[in-house]
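Lab notebook, bench 4. The sequencing result for the construct came back, and we need a structural model before the next group meeting so we can plan mutations. Quick request posted to the team channel:

Model the 3D structure of this chain.
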Amino acid sequence: MPAVRVFSLYAAQAVLFDFLLQISCFVALMSLDSKRQEASRYDVACCIPPSKKESIPKGEGILYQCIKKYYAPFLMNDAVRVIVIVLFTSTCCTAIAMVNKIELGLDQKLSMPEDSYVLDYFNNISAYLSVGAPVYFVVQSGHNYTDAHGQNNICGSNGCNVDSLLGQVFKASQQSNGTKIAHLASSWMDDYFDWIKPHGDHPCCREYPGQSREQFCPSTMNNKTCTSCNIPLSEGRPAPDDFLHYLPWFLSDMPTIKCAKGGHPAYSSAVVMKKDANNETEIGATYFMTFHTVLKTNKDYIDALKYAREMGEQMTAMLHPNASHRKFKYKYKNMIKETDASNYRVYPYSIFYVFYEQYLNIVSMTVIQLSTCLAVIFVISTLLLGIDLYSSFIVIFVIAMILCHMFGLMYLWDITLNAISLVNLIMCIGISVEFCSHIIRAFAVSLGKTRKDRAIDSLTHMGSSVLSGITLTKLGGIVVLAFSKSQLFQVFYFRMYLGMVLFGATHGLIFLPVFLSYIGPPLNKAKLYEHQTKHLELEDSSQGDVHKQNDTSYGHI
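Done. Here's the predicted structure in token form:
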């Protein structure tokens, strides 16, 4: 999907620049700020030396103390832990049940400010417009329109096949609530057959007497000397040569009161006449136009496009009876190219298809994109956590829960799935890593006796950083979006970003510590061995100092 690709390239460059600035400029500024603190200078007026040097108080912050003394012990209470697991599990299951109810599309009203006059136009169109968009069923070059078999597969009048192209459109129009096809398609072929027949004193097909067959007498010419075209018909159909010869006359003839079947206004662009390799005239691509029903919602437009595609596949299979085992799928990159006579297709086109094309495969695209992101994060987390597969699986599990809650939020807050929301979901995966990885890393290196002790230790040391450095800073920037006049910003940025931060913070600071206290990764034996070795070395060094002091005292005696 182009939108996701462009966003990913832009985000990758932003992350790269951010990383380079952090390891260069940010570190330098932090070192200068540390020197300022050591010199007891004020942060606002750092150039003014202090009157007297004051010692900088060193100690634990208020947020750290609150988490250590109150929040962590409360969260690790046995009853509270059970409630947390039940609550998050039930809400996650509820959110999963809502996933298939999320609507697809992007309402064009959201692109307008709330006070825009264009909203009244959209509302009036939705309320009063009583005609749908035109749809064209295009037959690619290669079909033989001159013989009876090829004509019967297309036309919709008497003698045509029941499952012809026009017959299938007619059947679809009888079930317009489901197919979104409102009327029978206009057929240049059926009108051409009526135009070519002699009708009373003023036939449609006329030519100048005594002239060659190239001299066409239009129906708009009130010339009584023009005579009817002498065309031999078989069951109302002309011979192949006559079919190709008189078709340009029909396409150039204007309808009048006496001849209403002139095809120039309706079909002048519906038939492409071209020359083959032998410089002989043949019929290229053609189209047959009908109308969709009145479409108001995104679901209506998507269903109309989907069923029109299915009709195109059925028509293609009908025109290729010897290749019925083949599955005709649409690849629109090659659809407009000329095809050989054995591989031509029928495909639908309407003006709004280009906007709703993405929604035919956006669900599968969403699954692929999110799964790929989770797989990449799993590999990176495994490497950065010291090849700790256990911890990496927990990271992916918690991020997947956050995603499920985001889908539930989208359903409850009327956020549709489209390219914008898909980009936000991918961002949600990246942001969720910040809420989870720090807590899990602190738990993995903790040397507490039990999982519960290690969970308290990790929450105490990293909880304040996650809350103040990630949660509160992001909330400050997101709240501003709530006051935007753009509905697009309010829906797809304020609502979704707010959900990312709140779900990420609650999962990282509430669910994850409790989850780790039950089935967190086991104690790191290498870290334990390193800690015990250092402890023994400290004990040996302290005992050695004691012996030296005793020897010195005995020497004095």
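DSSP finds 18 helices and eight strands in the chain.
Will bring this to the meeting.
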